[in-house]
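Q: Structure tokens for this one, please.
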Amino acid sequence: MIDLGISKMALIGAVALIVIGPEKLPRVARTVGTLLGKAQRYVADVKAEVSRSMELDELKKMRETVEGAARDVENSIQTQASDFEKSWTDATDAAMPPEFPEYKHPGKNWRLKQGAVPHWYKSRNGVRTKAQSGAARVARFRPQRMR
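A: Here is the predicted structure, written as tokens:
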């Protein structure tokens, strides 16, 4: 960096006053100040961009390491699961009882079964034995008029 002390700044100001003149010096100083401000902002933007790119690289590396660890965990779980499944099938195959034939419904006639219930049992439990129309049912359960 340039080492500018107070004495060097005073020397530069005196030379500028002599070369430029006292009338144009304030305008030139303003212009130089704005140019220096723009240069400082540009340098700050470049620094921020470099730091962002460095952080992005670090995040990419971190993401790769996390993904690698996740893959390792997934692979270990899969191998353990396959080992468990193998041991489970070995254990269950050895301890399985012989297979029985599949259940087949006997195919009995449900009408015969219902007909086998005695009439006295149906009447005691309120099972209807005769079909009745809706109008007949209403007439049967209609309250009687008082005379």
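A few notes: The mean pLDDT is 83. Helices lie at 6-20, 25-95, 110-115, 119-125, 134-141.
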